[in-house]
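ok so i was messing around last nite and threw this chain in just to see what happens. nothing serious, just curious
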Amino acid sequence: MGYCIVLDTETTSLDKPFCYDCSWVVMDKEHGQIVDFKANVVEQVWHNLPLFESAYYKDKRPKYIEMMRKHDMVMDKWGYIMRKLKQDIIKYDVTEVYAYNSDFDDKVIAFNCDWFKCNNPLENVAIYDIWGYASQYITCNSDYQTYCEENQRFTDTGNYKGSAEVVYQFITDNTEFIEEHMGLFDSEIESQILFECINCGAEWAKGYKVNKILSRPVRHPYSVRVDGVEVLTGEYL
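result:
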């Protein structure tokens, strides 16, 4: 069945998404095992301290330093990181790249390749959204909704959460899991979410619709009065 790449990026902002972490895993599509990975810190952004300090997860900097000291992560210029990605695409004959909320990661790669003036290795590779897979095979199920109810996994607007963190908690039955928001670790859990969907009947290389809003039915009381007298009460969804 071959291999695919699951990729994740971490950026300084959403509007101008300068990437400081571009990492990925290579997954064996038959067994769901990770056979290779690349964890990369982007040198140009890392050394631009005012820019890095604008990142939402800037507090992760000590963890990046620790990983680089242990040689679990490498600092390289953006162009060289893109060459490594291209090399892995060729080495493993990859025709599919996956990411959770792939539209964002696709935008990040394109923006930074344009900014740093290098070739985009994903231009000729199909990109699929793991969020869409999860929407159609995990978060739409009543068991998932029950899990969200029992563990209070709601958005600020009161709907069910569909984030990679909560989906991974559900499929692993680990309510204590907290997403690292670091490229390598997030790629690892997202690859497991993807393979769980495959085991549930999803097809490789298929663009499934993303359900960004997982509506939660909420009961509201009502009453009907006639001439000031309450004649009917109940609830509506």
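not much to say yet. The CA atoms of residues 10 and 181 lie 7 Å apart.
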